[in-house]
Design goal:
The chain contains 15 helices and no strands. The chain is mainly alpha-helical.
């Protein structure tokens, strides 16, 4: 058990170090690289590359080099993105965003495969249930991994708070903040001014070092798993059938009805990290507060993910979906009506806090819903989940620099309303097909954010 546990901890802390860097950089892109919309354009390219990567690369790369080296090589793709932020331009950030996106899917697939095989092998030796051991391993992983958003954003806030670009904000500057922003690259001259190069180099240097440590940790301490060959041989033979099954799965009416809900996950996360962080937090408080605000979101999201996974068996998923819809709608309406004011400091944290509660419900319950509805075809179903969520991110980041925040808020709200209508249709079809066994009573604990989330 000690050796297996060691490997699980190596992967867990490797991902923690890697995503400490990525989560911090992602939260800052819309503010740090605001000129000509470079930051959000890079995120749009990143998720587009991730979508393509999810369809083709994981089984091929894992087959060639095994799980350990797939993880190590994919981590290097994330380090490349950190390096691209040293001298952020269209010629550095866009290519490194593509590299990260292509490495994202193999990284997560290799991690899941490694933990699954490790759990299965240990269960066979110990005479225990493989399902229980695998669940235990994934529980350890997410317990460690989910704190990455907190550490990454804390580092950015502590470093960027050293900036000298801080002072009193004028009423004139505040007019360009909020839902009716002025659509300029620097929405106010005092607070949104790019930090000094030395501070940016320090921040990106810390993030790059964190990523390099993650790579070294995996290369030096992670054991190559013996069952890689067996597992990847199976993946090789099933690759094209799996790929085609992803699209064949769209013949299922329920899957088509779940597309708006799945895409909404990408829309709402992109709005908070791209638009709220720039036009509200950076504009009215300063870029050094973005990290603290996103810590509030990440921390509450993590706690509620754990809570909702536990209580869903008592409340049913419908109630949690309804709670998420009400909270998200309330936050969007607040964003539309509220004019950000530094004197109303608490509001800057209340909105992302409530958004974290609703996002936790979306993630856990949508994952659970896919697992329950498509129990016999989970692989194709979750491939669709990754595909449509990534497309939601791509679309939201793509139009981010072209529209005012209030228009983007209305788009997010419209997608939410459509999602609830189509989700209701799915529940109706389920109730109609099995009137004696309400689907809500079935327990299926959906996991916290996957790559795409917090990628």
């Amino acid at each position: 058990m000690e050796r297996n546990l060691k490997n699980v901890l190596v992967i867990s802390f490797g991902f923690l170090l890697l995503f400490t860097a990525y989560s911090g950089l992602q939260s800052l892109q819309s503010s740090l690289n605001a000129e000509e919309g470079l930051g959000v354009a890079s995120l749009s390219v990143l998720y587009a590359a991730l979508t393509l990567s999810s369809m083709f690369l994981p089984p091929i790369i894992i087959k060639k080099v095994g799980c350990k080296w797939t993880i190590a090589v994919s981590m290097c793709c994330y380090v490349a993105y950190s390096l691209g932020n040293f001298y952020a331009s269209w010629y550095t950030l866009i290519p490194t965003s593509m590299i990260l996106g292509l490495g994202g899917a193999p990284l997560w697939s290799a991690k899941c495969t490694y933990l699954t095989i490790a759990g299965t092998l240990y269960a066979e030796k110990a005479g225990k249930s493989a399902k229980d051991i695998i669940s235990q391993y994934f529980g350890i992983f997410f317990l460690v991994f989910q704190t990455a958003g907190v550490w990454g954003n804390l580092i950015s806030s502590l470093i960027l708070s050293q900036s000298s670009n801080q002072g009193e904000i004028s009423e004139e500057d505040l007019e360009c903040c909020g839902a009716y922003d002025c659509l300029t690259d620097t929405t106010n001259s005092t607070w949104s001014e790019r930090p000094s190069d030395s501070l940016i180099y320090t921040l990106v240097g810390v993030y790059t070092a964190s990523g390099v440590l993650a790579v070294l940790l995996v290369i030096i301490f992670l054991d190559q798993i013996k069952s890689d060959q067996v597992e990847t041989e199976k993946e090789k033979t099933s690759f094209w059938s799996t790929f085609l099954a992803t699209f064949r799965h769209l013949k299922d009416k329920r899957q088509c009805l779940l597309i708006p809900l799945t895409m909404y996950s990408g829309f709402e996360q992109a709005f908070l990290s791209g638009d709220f962080s720039k036009s509200f937090v950076t504009c009215a408080l300063g870029i050094h507060y973005v990290g603290y605000v996103m810590i509030c979101f990440a921390g509450i999201n993590s706690l509620c993910s754990l809570l909702f996974g536990k209580i869903s068996q008592f409340t049913g998923r419908k109630l949690l979906f309804a709670l998420a819809a009400v909270l998200n709608t309330s936050c969007i309406i607040t964003v539309l009506l509220w004019k950000p004011d530094p004197k109303q400091f608490a509001v800057f944290f209340v909105i992302p806090g409530l958004w974290g509660v609703s996002d936790a419900a979306w993630q856990t319950q949508t994952n659970a819903l896919y697992g329950i509805l498509f129990e016999k075809n989970k692989e194709a179903a979750f491939a669709n989940y990754r595909l449509w969520e990534s497309i939601g991110f791509v679309i939201a980041f793509a139009y981010s620099t072209k529209l005012q925040v209030y228009i983007k808020a209305y788009i997010v709200l419209s997608v939410l309303v459509l999602s609830m209508v189509t989700y209701g249709a799915v529940e109706y079809l389920e109730a109609k097909s099995s009137p004696g066994t309400p689907a809500a009573t079935k327990k299926e604990n959906g996991g916290p954010h996957s790559q795409e989330t917090h990628m």
